Amino acid sequence: METEKKVVLKAEHIKKYFPVKNAVSHGKVQVKAVDDISLMLHEGETYGLVGETGCGKSTLGRTVLKLIEPTEGRISINGTDITELSEKQMIPYRQKMQMVFQDPYTSLDPRKKVGDLLMEALQIQKIGDRKDRMELAMQMLGKVGLRPQHFYRYPHEFSGGQRQRVGLARALILNPSFIVCDEPVSALDVSVQSQIINLLLDLQEDGKVTYLFIAHDMSVVKYISTRIGVMYLGHLVEEAATDELFSLPSHPYTQALLSSVPSSNPKIKKQRIVLEGEIPSPMNAPKGCVFHTRCMYSMPICETERPQMKEISCGHCVACHMYDQ
Ligand code: SF4
Rounded to two decimals, what is the model's pTM? Predict the structure, then answer.
């Protein structure tokens, strides 16, 4: 009998709205960057989060880590509700939840040597003395494929791929159970991309680390993820195991997104679905189904009622009125 995997992240009905000034009316409006999304991630899985630029993927990633506060919703990590915790109360939990950024250069203090950056994370969490911290930092550099002499170098002395290895080392040195990887390879050359992806998979080998992997490149997400969630304009529109999503994409937006992914078999000709119109502004998202302004199957109900996520087969959920019956 298969044992239930431990739930690492439980995010329920997360909303993140940003108040902004309307340039025309000078009144306040809200940008609904994330609008009622629930996620559950299990130990050792990689959950890919995809969607066009500006759909709210990164905001969701930062919100579940409480790097920004949710407007509404609840977040639990390893069974502990962290929603109401203050910055200070969050410190012990920070050890277990980390983030890897697209451009590690902007997240690494340029005045500090890499060794000091790694040891600093351990010091904040009061782990070991200086000698222990140095040993752990050296070991971590080796794990991510860097050499001991890199300990004494500054971030600007590294290539893009090496800097991403440093970013990974810094995230992993605290032995986290959950890491949000926010477009970690999109700024890298293709050859370096695969090295970093394989490194992420190797580091997950013991099956304990859970990744929320945010990206817009479907091929990368397909390679690394066990499950995938598709976002459109702040909403989760489909969620399924990777193979299922690629073989049976069910939401019209997912179908359009996947139709643009080149097939690995040149004999298979894919018909590309070109979406009409621009992605609407999150300041003025369409009522009902947020995709109805671009959906070729739109029905009257789609303009007034927001479709809820429904399970259409085991673990495969879609938010679309076509699956109401
Ligand atoms: Fe299209 Fe309607 Fe489904 Fe939205 S709910 S994706 S508009 S068919």
Answer: 0.91
